[in-house]
Amino acid sequence: MEFISGGWVMNDEACVFYTNTIDQMTYGIRKLKDIFGKCGVPRIGWQIDPFGHSREYASLLAQMGMDGYFFGRVDYQDFRARKKQQELEFIWSGSANLGKDAQIFTGILPNVYSPPRGFCFDIYCSDDALVDDPDSDEYNVKSRVDDFLIYVNETATFYKSNNIPVTMGNDFNYQSAGHWFTNLDKLIHYTNLRSVETKVNLLYSTPSCYLKALHESGVTWPNKTDDFFPYASDPHAYWTGYFTSRPAFKFLDRYANNQLQAAKQLGVLAGPREVT
Predict the structure, then answer these.
(1) Rounded CA separation 110/107 (Å)
(2) CA angle 147-70-164, nearest 5°?
(3) Is 41 left (phi over 0), alpha (psi -120 to 50) or beta?
(4) SS3 category, 223
(5) Prior bond to 116 cis, omega within 30?
(6) What residues does the Glycoside hydrolase family 38 N-terminal domain cover (predicted)?
(7) Which of 34, 49, 75, 133 is catalytic?
(8) Domains of the chain and any CATH numbers
(9) What are the tens digits of pLDDT across the range 74-113?
(10) Apex CA 23: angle with CA 18 and CA 93, to 5°?
């Protein structure tokens, strides 16, 4: 198990001001450290649902000491091109002035953050479970593994290394976690029984373990220096309205944050409170 990102929230990257990001990340990570110690401090940025991504946020994560950064939402045309060119993973240079201090390995997940089609094992899904009783009329292990291998082999063509991420879960999932893990255990077991034949090996992993495997692969990654804005999920479906909507709320956010920054600076000047 691994804590990832660690902020109090998964903040937006378009309308947010950098001090807001730093404050909420500081609060969340400090809380994790207080409860779990140094082992609870995240090393991976995880922004799977914001609508577009900024190089400034990548720069901030690098300066926070994160080892990598993963997200799911990318403009559909950019995503299509990156799959074809095997550029879903790259080094993101967030600042020309800061150089390597603002560089971070970045990976785009293959399916936003959802499971492969047909492999959602949540109580809200209607996909077939893996039935491994050979005496059952519903026995389907071979066909289910075959379908999963089709997905894996196609997804593998989008990445440069022999390691690929497969996300399992979705919004409001794992309320019945046992059903998920029972099926995942079966899927991993029966797929790996055929690994000599298929050259596919499945395992439970974490973002840090995945990143370690990528580093050990010796692959050279492309570089990116600009933003992932605007975000479009389909033709004529640009997720940009929130750039200008709710102006009064945005004003209050900036105003309150300015007051907070001023109070923090006054607190520093005042020094620690004497305790008698």
Answers:
(1) 9
(2) 35
(3) beta
(4) strand
(5) no
(6) 1-232
(7) 49
(8) 18-238 (3.20.110.10)
(9) 999 999 999 999 999 999 999 999 999 999 999 999 999 9
(10) 40
